[in-house]
Amino acid sequence: MASDPIRILLVEDSPSDAYMAGQVLRQVPKLAFTLAHEPQFGKGLERLRTEEFDVLLLDLSLPDVRGLETVTRAVAEAGEVPVVVLTGQDDDSLGLEAVRLGAQDFIVKGEVDGWRMVRRLRYAIERKRHEHDRDGRGPQR
């Protein structure tokens, strides 16, 4: 898994936050990844339906949906793709609720370096695969 490229779909309306997410990932030497970016939730879902991604990195505050509704809708649409929330809100109760709604993890913008973000994305992917296998639906990919 370590050498497999991680295909990331970032749904983030702030160009500077999207840029920073890419910069944080680029801090990790030899990390193979692709980062697709959509600034709107609806467009992100369209890409999720038509392209293959390993993980959805999702902002909670978008022009076309806000708050925990974002998580609920994303989890429903993402299917086997794990959802990791990326937000500027440092709120443990919000993070816990996002996970209860089906997100695999909750990352506060600016609080993780490249190594930690990659670890969290990989762990989210593996947790989702384990969940998928445990539910008897066979291996993902």
What labels describe this entry?
about 140 residues, alpha/beta, Rossmann fold, five-stranded parallel sheet, two-stranded antiparallel sheet, 5 helices, globular
Write up this protein.
With 141 residues, the protein is of the alpha/beta class. It has a single domain, classed as Response regulator (Rossmann fold, 3-Layer(aba) Sandwich). The strands form 2 sheets. The chain has a 5-stranded parallel β-sheet with strand order 2-1-3-6-7, sandwiched between helices. The chain has a two-stranded antiparallel ribbon with strand order 4-5. Helix 1 crosses helix 5 and helix 2 packs parallel to helix 3.
Give the helices and strands, then pairings.
Elements: E1 6-11, H1 15-26, E2 33-38, H2 41-50, E3 55-58, E4 61-62, E5 65-66, H3 68-78, E6 83-87, H4 92-100, E7 105-108, H5 114-134
Parallel strand pairs: 1-2, 1-3, 3-6, 6-7
Antiparallel strand pairs: 4-5
Helix pairs in contact: 1-5, 2-3
Q: List the domain count as a whole number.
A: 1
CATH topology type: Rossmann fold
Which class do the helix and strand fractions yield?
alpha/beta
Tell the overall outline.
globular
State the fourth-level CATH superfamily.
Answer: Response regulator
Strand order across the biggest sheet? 2-1-3-6-7
List how many beta strands DSSP finds: 7
Alpha-carbon distance between the two ends: 12 Å
Specify the biggest β-sheet. Answer: 5 strands, parallel
Please bin the fraction of helical residues: 40-55%
Note poorly predicted spans.
Answer: none
Q: What portion of the residues fall into strands of 2 or more residues? A: 15-25%
Query: What radius of gyration results from the CA coordinates?
Result: 14 Å
Question: Average pLDDT, to the nearest integer?
Answer: 90
| Order of secondary-structure elements | EHEHEEEHEHEH
The CATH architecture is 3-Layer(aba) Sandwich
Total number of helices: 5
